[in-house]
């Protein structure tokens, strides 16, 4: 009984969110937060990841883990993606130095929009060089849309756009596509990072995953770095090149990110 009542609440809640999300998208009410990726040696900001944010007028911040799947269900994810690409490129073109920007794309985007066209247009309009722009794609997305994804990613890579494999280690564990697709970066999921300061086996696993990436000539990034102890273990034992996580910065609203870049990259 309780179970059914809860499902009903969830159903109505989700229906309401879908209606409100549709309005928020058409009214331009989404925003972006940016989280820096730092070079592990210099501690300078190399690029920032764009993360979509939705502040609901009554419910407050709805997390992307809730609204991105809803957007996929109602067929509006690609509108979000296209907007994120344009907005992220625009913001990045105004940041100090040569800091790049990364955006997340969904499996559906490969069919629903001309990703290459959208990226080209954004780069042309903002004057951002392709080397400063990066697409993040999950294992699941590239496997689901294998043929079309490999074509689109190859086209983007040919232009010089970076291709990062996101959440590495959490999806399908077939490794064949790692060398078959034109990735430039491997982002190791934070589940490989969380225990490394306490568990020798966890550190050994992270080290070996990072070596795999380095052997394939990928830039290797650790996600979800939260403590100095985790960072120190990585510096001492792994070939990880870039780090991202709350230890350095939470995702920040766009008005604060330029200042953070200036501060961290000064001197
Ligand atoms: P993701 O692409 O793996 O993004 C990283 C997530 O990890 C972000 O959550 C970020 O806030 C969080 N994070 C960063 N550092 C730490 C840390 O040190 N500890 C912990 N516990 N978490 C950390 P966020 O912003 O809630 O986004 C969640 C997911 O939603 C993203 O995971 C991504 O899959 C999706 N997402 C966000 N924005 C977009 C978008 O514009 N398009 C698409 N397709 N997906 C998006
Ligand atoms: Ca990502
Ligand atoms: Ca990730
Ligand atoms: Ca994730």
TrEMBL record:
Superkingdom of origin: Bacteria
Domain EAL: 14-265
Protein's recorded name: Diguanylate cyclase/phosphodiesterase
């Amino acid at each position: 009984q309780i179970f059914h009542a809860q499902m009903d609440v969830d159903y109505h809640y989700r229906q309401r969110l879908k209606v409100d999300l549709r309005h928020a998208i058409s009214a331009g009410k989404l925003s972006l937060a940016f989280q820096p990726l730092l070079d592990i040696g210099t501690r300078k900001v190399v690029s920032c990841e764009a993360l979509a944010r939705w502040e609901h007028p009554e419910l407050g911040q709805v997390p992307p883990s809730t609204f991105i799947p809803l957007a996929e269900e109602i067929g509006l994810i690609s509108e979000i993606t296209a907007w994120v690409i344009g907005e992220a490129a625009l913001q990045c073109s105004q940041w100090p130095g040569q800091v790049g920007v990364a955006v997340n794309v969904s499996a559906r985007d490969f069919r629903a929009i001309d990703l290459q066209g959208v990226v080209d247009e954004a780069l042309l309009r903002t004057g951002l060089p392709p080397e400063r722009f990066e697409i993040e794609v999950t294992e699941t997305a590239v496997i689901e849309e294998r043929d079309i994804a490999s074509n689109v990613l190859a086209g983007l890579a040919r232009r010089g756009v970076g291709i990062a494999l996101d959440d590495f280690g959490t999806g399908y564990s077939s490794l064949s596509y790692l060398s078959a697709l034109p990735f430039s970066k491997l982002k190791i999921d934070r589940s490989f990072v969380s225990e490394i300061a306490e568990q020798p086996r966890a550190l050994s696993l992270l080290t070996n995953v990072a070596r795999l990436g380095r052997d394939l000539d990928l830039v290797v990034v650790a996600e979800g770095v939260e403590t100095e102890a985790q960072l120190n273990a990585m510096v001492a034992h792994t070939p990880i090149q870039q780090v991202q996580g709350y230890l350095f910065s939470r995702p920040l609203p766009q008005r604060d990110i330029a200042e953070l870049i200036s501060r961290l990259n000064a001197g």
